[in-house]
Amino acid sequence: MIERGDRLLMRRHRRSAARYAGQVGQDIKRQLSIGMVRQESIFQLANRLRRLGGPRGLVATRGVLGEPGAVAEEISEGLFTRYGHWADRLVRTEVIGAYNAVADDGIQELARENPGQVMRRWDAAMDQRLCRLCRELHGQVVGVDEPFAHGIDRPPAHSRCRCAVGAWSRSWTL
Length: 174
Prior knowledge:
The protein contains 7 helices and 5 strands. It has a 3-stranded antiparallel sheet with strand order 4-3-5, with helices on one face. It has a two-stranded antiparallel ribbon with strand order 1-2. α4 crosses α6 (84-113). By secondary structure, it is an alpha+beta fold. The model is unreliable at 1-11 (pLDDT under 50).
């Protein structure tokens, strides 16, 4: 389980991956993997990262260091210590990403057992916090091996995305 989680964590978000590169990124992935195996809550996982501290030194708080428009800050105590909400955002995004990766694996298995009958559906949390992108993706149905709109493979589409991928078949009724 830790090995599978390790492959999934932070893989899809280029700016975050750049921010948490090297040993810090490995430490974050290890702590998240351990916490997920122990079935810790979002709050417990975020506290785990706050205790870790996070990236230190010159840290990009916007964009990627060295690229135009990047904003950096000197942080001696650690990014997650100074800005606890960054730990929360990272945990929430990675947990939903891991959940959707496992759900997608189940959909793939179901499709192998029922060829041509199973598709994937994007489901968004329909409330006032729903973003424009997720509203557009909500309810979209694609083939098992097809990406959703904008080339997005599966949720999360962005930081703090709360969407889920689910199995769908024309023969099912709501």
